[in-house]
Amino acid sequence: MGADNEKELSLKLFVVLTRALDSITSKIKDDIRGYGLNPTEFAVLELLYHKGEQPIQKIGDKVLLASSSITYVVDKLEKKGYIKRKPCPTDRRVTYAVITELGQTLMDEIFPKHMDAINDICAGLNVDEKKLLIEMLKKLGLFAKSI
Amino acid sequence: MGADNEKELSLKLFVVLTRALDSITSKIKDDIRGYGLNPTEFAVLELLYHKGEQPIQKIGDKVLLASSSITYVVDKLEKKGYIKRKPCPTDRRVTYAVITELGQTLMDEIFPKHMDAINDICAGLNVDEKKLLIEMLKKLGLFAKSI
DNA sequence: ATAATTTATTTCGAATTCGAGATAATGAAA
DNA sequence: TTTCATTATCTCGAATTCGAAATAAATTAT
């Protein structure tokens, strides 16, 4: 059962990591669908909600999405009335995405629920374990990114 | 910087988990593309390589994919000649996917390289840390799935 | 000042995934 | 046995994502 050498251990880590995140995101998706959004729309909306207006291009960095995909998501959120585009006055290449009143109202309503849901989903570990896990994941992730 | 209550800690855990896995999978994808496969194709091929022939439906469970998606991936691998379909003699609803000689040869060649790559990518933690991380992720994931 | 390069966004087509429904076979119930 | 429900696979259309190329504006270099 246990990995008998470091390579197998690394592979096992990758598999367990993938499956753990899959279990979690599958539940989180259920929560988000209940708000009439998909996970990407929610992520973009949340970014604007918490960090204020953003150049469209910067959204991609934070939400881990290609710029062409951002265009698509921003279009959808705009059609739903939750955000709007706003041209940058100093650089005409740039377009900001800004959350609307409707978007604000929605997020005021659903974000607390969303946090509760995530907390419930992550209740398999206690506070200290979560802190430890976060540190280890940061270490793992930063190293992987640096290669 | 640090989360000041449990809900924020859970949210942070989710974000860090997502980003860590993203950093890792992005590197693993690079590795797999180098073998002329995409990650899903590789996962299916690896399953058949290590676990032997599988009913198409069971592949979906292990690779976390809907049955209609499995059909698509199996079609592609079959066209590439790495696997073939084999009807089940006792249950005519069932079709097995079986790795071919060509698929075997490919995996004999690339799987060791793939394990090396994963090990390099995961080298940010030592063996004990990996073991600990695995246990915590299992605990987290199993709980999330059970909700 | 003009040209060349870089940057931001969008368009377009392709790849991947899903869910709902179709088809066919098996198993259970009457 | 005939019917009903379940199971396995596939088809189809829609959603999402990407990468390459197009467009347009800003910046840098000559």
Task: Tell me about this structure.
The structure is a homodimer of 147-residue chains. Chain A has 147 residues and is mainly alpha-helical. Chain A has 6 helices and 3 strands. In chain A, α2 (39-51) packs across α4 (67-79) and α3 (56-63) crosses α4 (67-79). The mean pLDDT of chain A is 95. The interface between A and B is large, with 50 and 50 residues. Chain A binds a DNA duplex (30 and 30 nucleotides) through residues 38, 40, 55-57, 65-73, 88, 91-95. Chains A, B: GO terms for molecular function: DNA binding; DNA-binding transcription factor activity. Chains A, B: It comes from Salirhabdus euzebyi.
How is the secondary structure organized here?
The structure is a homodimer.
Chain A: H1 6-33, H2 39-51, E1 54-55, H3 56-63, H4 67-79, E2 83-87, E3 95-99, H5 101-121, H6 127-146
Antiparallel strand pairs in A: 1-3, 2-3
Helix pairs in contact in A: 1-5, 2-4, 3-4
The first copy, chain A, binds a DNA duplex (30 and 30 nucleotides) through α4.
Instruction: Profile the largest sheet of chain A.
Output: 3 strands, antiparallel
Number of domains of chain A: 1
- In the CATH hierarchy, what is the architecture of chain A at level 2? Orthogonal Bundle
CATH fold naming of chain A: Arc Repressor Mutant, subunit A
Counting helices, strands and paired strands, the structural category of chain A is mainly alpha
Strand content of chain A: 5-15%
Looking at the chains present, what oligomeric state does this protein adopt?
homodimer
User: Rough shape of chain A?
Assistant: globular
Gap between N and C termini of chain A, in Å?
30 Å
Quick one: which chains have the greatest interface? Answer: A-B, 50 and 50 residues
What is the radius of gyration of chain A computed over CA atoms, rounded to a whole number of angstroms?
Answer: 19 Å
Average pLDDT metric of chain A: 95
CATH top level of chain A is: Mainly Alpha
Determine the number of helices of chain A (DSSP H or I, runs of at least 4 residues): 6
- List unreliable stretches of 5+ residues of chain A: none
* CATH superfamily label of chain A: Winged helix-like DNA-binding domain superfamily/Winged helix DNA-binding domain
Query: How many strands appear in the DSSP assignment of chain A?
Result: 3
Helix percent band of chain A:
over 70%
Order of helices and strands of chain A: HHEHHEEHH
Lateral arrangement of strands in the main beta sheet of chain A? 1-3-2
